[in-house]
Amino acid sequence: MTRVAQAHDAINLAQGFPDFPAPAALKEAAAIAIAQDHNQYPITWGVPAFRDAIAAEYARAYGIEVDPDTEVCVTCGSTEAVMASFLGVLDPGDGVVLFEPFYEAYGPDSILTGADRRFVTLRPPDWSFDPDELRTAFAGARAIVLNSPHNPTGKVFTREELALIGELCIEHDAIAITDEIYEHITYDGRTHVPIATLPGMRERTVTVSALSKTYSVTGWRVGWAIADPRLMQGIRSTHDFMTVGAATPLQHAGITALGLGPDYLTAMASDYVVRRATMMRILGQAGFDAITPEGAYYVMADVTPLGFDDDVEAAMHLVRERGVAAVPGSSFFADPAVGRHLLRFAFCKRLETLEEAGRRLTG
Ligand code: PLP
Fold it and tell me: Does the pLDDT of residue 124 top 90, yes or no?
């Protein structure tokens, strides 16, 4: 393969979508829902049986009691759920604490809301933060945005870190908007702790998740927000005027997805253990200094051992000369300089895809 052909035929380890099939049961359920004519607008905040299934899943997985009639809003993916939470709960000028690096959408979400943003930096190699920096950022804040397991670092916030965040929320009468879309992808015995389960946090937390990552259906655009009715009212109204509702037949298929239960979730997570090991081996062989993720399906890799001092230059080199696409780390930071030496690789791919990327990176 010529170098030019490689650039046109790059292996996409940039975007976080699987290149392997979605579970057959979901595809069948979606086809059946369409055939059964579940094809019109849903109730704005979600098909009732799907909201029931979401409530049942939070009770089963985390012991969180959710009222499906008043506390759930089904959205077009987790992306819309976070946006609707920002717009529906916050006012312009409200202080919002964000950890950086952060999933790119939180940038525009907070700007469109007119939030007064305060960034707290997660620092490599363990992506820990300075508790005092967090305390300072919380002064006068109305909300914090949390994402655990975390994109792009793979950090899983510890119970102690979550406890501190919870204490600060209570002390400052702030809410947590928590994006838990990778809740079922954790490694090395770690388990996901929803911040809503911590003392005093249930009524001040908006919990966001989606079918997208857990069930490998990122294109379905089905997610949800869960919150106390006082917060949910604004979220539902915002959602109503942004998108009216998420795709009706795919919400019906979502009932099947949530019904797949723990066996599916365990098998899905063990497949990611193998993909993570493969990705780490490949990045090591290619000379990157990569930081092992604790959850989610991304790795941040330092490009300095390869002689680069600029992430965009490194990403352009890899896609043009090696045919492998990754995301420049600086795009995840409010201060791009902090991520200038990093690339993010997504490993939600078939093992063959990862091995081919490995051949290209080491060849
Ligand atoms: N939140 C995080 C942290 C993500 O990494 C992503 C996708 O990469 C999303 C949300 C998007 O979720 P959805 O496809 O459900 O909108």
Answer: no
What is residue 65's predicted lDDT score, i.e. its pLDDT? 97
Pocket test for ligand 1, best of 181, 182, 300, 345 (most atoms within 8 A of CB): 181
End-to-end CA distance of the chain: 12
Mean pLDDT, residues 56-78 taken together: 98
Domains of the chain: 3-22+262-362 (3.90.1150.10), 24-259 (3.40.640.10)
CA distance 182 to 259: 18
pLDDT-derived band at 363, boundaries 50, 70, 90: confident
Model pLDDT, residue 265: 98
Which ligand 1 atom sits closest to the C-alpha of 211? 15
> Measuring CA to CA, which residue among 20, 359, 88, 33 is closest to residue 222?
33
Query: Residue 54 has which token pair?
Result: 């979401």
State residue 8's pLDDT score: 57
Ligand 1 binding pocket includes 180 (Cβ within 6 Å): no
